[in-house]
């Protein structure tokens, strides 16, 4: 059974006792209303504990904190714990097992890790991690950092987490309080440990994870939108973890189709030559992958004009329905072909200072707006940045690629970055090894999608009144549901032509 481990990374955690009843409590909750009532009740327990610990007497916080630690046990939830519990509940509703880990139990303010065997056992038993914690200056707290250090330094744990799924939740005192930057930094660290990262799901238009506004103890339940993002993150983590698990339990024959989008290069086209060479090298090593290299720089990409309704009409996913219809436009010419992929590598060459840069990157990424809004055509595909970078380039394009592409409801993999110096590819052998890992994970995800059947992922307009009105009309008429079903069947058919499952 797939297991999602919810991790609380806050020093205010209430549930640090080993006899934790949280998982049992969540299993008895059957709907969101009862979940919110439970979270409110548990938050109030912690508020009362603060009062008992000395808040009513205006004692200094360090004294209150010591008293709280003594009161910690089986009841109460901090804001970070409550947010994590919302995600865990949603994961369990998706049909997976759940477990809970309080980092405050294992990482004391000073000294060595305590009860390490218990900590390690919980990590080693999970298929996915849902990490929730507070924001400090737009970044994670020290408990989360200690956890990340521990995982990366332990070779057995690092090996176990490779290819597992990660999702994050961040809690800040105000809206735009650093939650998204915290999630972005954490996502990068997790994929650098070879985990596969996801955001929240399409119920809140697929963003970076759970983003909660809650400063004072017990304020979580005031943020309905934040709770929705936590639930969406837990649901997304469970969904992708099930795909990975399903794909790992069978063998398959056939080739997956990996698309490479070359969006930036220099005027000497070093990038194009590099990516062609890479494709040839990988194909010489394995016969389970087909590459399609799109030299976008050889085409024209019109700028997105941010239509009030996008796509302009309801239709099959194979149909091009962006308002830009120039015959020279890349998307107008190749929409159907680029929609047929099992994994995507977003490619670029970062030349050094003083070199001419050819780039369609920003125009291309913003134009994928119509693809995202067309019910996430790239949903559940594995995506990674693939960069050839001069040693002196000082660019962060890989991070920008990750944060843009996760919004397509994709699964984000470790960036592939080849460093070039004076014509020498310094780490090419390592890049080849990492590329093999990417293809292995993409193959596994594709088999999982094939076995469990591709699901419809509905884009729900947020913040666009005209789009929302049209969406409601199309839902009411049944046209949207009809075309989504047809598109899903077509995608499933294409996958069936490439892969054939052989049960173990």
Helix-strand layout with pairing:
Layout: E1 3-8, H1 22-27, H2 32-53, H3 61-71, H4 79-93, E2 97-102, H5 116-124, E3 128-134, H6 142-153, H7 155-161, E4 165-172, H8 179-192, E5 196-197, E6 210-213, H9 224-248, E7 250-254, E8 256-266, H10 270-285, E9 289-295, H11 330-338, E10 343-350, E11 357-359, H12 361-367, H13 369-373, E12 382-390, H14 397-405, E13 411-412, E14 416-421, E15 424-425, H15 428-452, H16 465-477, H17 479-498, E16 499-503
Parallel strand pairs: 1-2, 1-3, 3-4, 4-5, 4-6, 8-9, 8-10, 10-12, 12-13, 12-14
Antiparallel strand pairs: 7-16, 8-11, 14-15
Helix pairs in contact: 2-4, 4-9, 9-15
What's the mean pLDDT score?
91
**Gyration radius over CA:** 24 Å
Classify the beta-strand content into a percent band.
15-25%
- Classification by helices and strands: alpha/beta
> What is the helix tally?
17
Major β-sheet annotation: 8 strands, mixed
* Span of the ends, CA to CA: 17 Å
Task: Flag low-confidence runs.
Answer: none
How does this structure look, described?
- The protein has 504 residues and is an alpha/beta fold.
- It has 17 helices and 16 strands.
- α9 packs across α15 (428-452).
- The chain starts with a strand and ends with a strand.
- The mean pLDDT is 91.
